[in-house]
Amino acid sequence: MTSSQTASDTSFPDRIPVGISACLLGEKVRYDGAHKRSDYCQDVLSRYFDFRQACPEMAIGLGTPRPTIRLVASDGGRQVSAIQSAEPPRDVSAGLAAVADDVLQGQADLCGFILTEKSPSCGVFRVKTYDERGGLLHAKGRGLFAARLLERQPLLPVEEAGRLNDPHLRENFVLRVYAWHEWHNSLLPALSMANLTAFWARYKFLVLAHNEAVYRQIGPLLGSASRSALPAVAEQFFAWLMEALATPTTRGSNTNALQHLQGYLKKRLDAVEKKSLQLLIRQYKEGSVPLIVPLSMMRHLLARYPDDYANQQKFLAPYPDELGLRNHH
């Protein structure tokens, strides 16, 4: 990135490969022959994500409509199975796990997955789980297809469609998808300590805004790394990066990042510019304006007074502005 560029000039990939439950795209594959179309996924995210649809229950030949599946816990809750309420009842646990294995093996380029909430196959959170007598144990289970995905790829950005209605969770998911894509398609194919350090330099203030504790861990990790330990260091770095980016920001943490960036401009701005930027940052912190307002001003000033280090920060533009994710907080 040259001194005349800003992070907002970053060219993003046209469409990133992301898995999705088929019913969320309007496919009539649910147990009752219906769908669960997500307008946000279909009408908005499909412009940025190359959706690869999957229905694990259809993939194991259950058809539609079909008898429902329940999560059933046994062995004191240590064993959870997916049991179809057919006559006789049918355990489909192994099939659902095998479909997850097939998806990950056949589509290794996936950068995330959006799944259907409360589903005994696809639900990630709050799935009802029953005991062997049919009594409700709790509603904290995880569908077995989703569980296998996360067992095989614990860092993969995975979210439920319903939770994408929350602006913070929505941003965190999209942010991790773009970070995952850059890591696996740009950094890993050319892994070196220099490239890893440069990658961290770009993500530094973004991580600061999301999780200051992780921010303070990464510097010492890279500073003490030897060339022979590079693969292990890169693995730990990426785990911490995904942990940080999964942490929702606050107005206070974003203000902290904005003020760090402002420091790179303080000797270049005239009195009016400095006062205007400080006012917008304060208004954002107080809740009067959304994050995009001081960010837009910051990007404008960095275009006018370029700084190589500040201009490259992913915090300025971690994903396309058109997604509008910073217009709501």
Describe the structure.
- The protein is of the alpha/beta class and 329 residues long.
- It has two domains: 16-165, no CATH class; 166-329, no CATH class.
- Helices cover 44% and strands 13% of the residues.
- It has twelve helices and nine strands.
- The protein has helices at 39-43, 56-59, 93-106, 144-152, 167-187, 193-210, 212-223, 230-245, 251-262, 271-286, 292-304, 308-311; strands at 16-21, 49-54, 69-74, 79-84, 90-91, 113-115, 127-130, 136-141, 158-160.
- The strands form two sheets. A five-stranded mixed sheet has the order 5-4-3-7-8.
- A hairpin with a 4-residue loop joins strand 3 and strand 4.
- Helix 3 (93-106) crosses helix 4 and helix 9 packs antiparallel against helix 10.
- Mean pLDDT is 94; it is low at 1-8.
Total helices: the number is 12
As residue ranges, the low-confidence spans are 1-8
Helix residue percentage:
40-55%
Give the biggest sheet: 5 strands, mixed
Distance between the termini: 28 Å
In N-to-C order, the SSE pattern is EHEHEEEHEEEHEHHHHHHHH
Mean pLDDT: 94
Provide the spatial order of strands within the biggest beta sheet: 5-4-3-7-8
How big is the Rg?
Answer: 23 Å
Query: What characteristic shape results from the CA principal axes?
Result: elongated
Beta-strand residue percentage: 5-15%
Which structural class matches the secondary elements?
alpha/beta
How many beta-strand elements? 9
Number of domains: 2
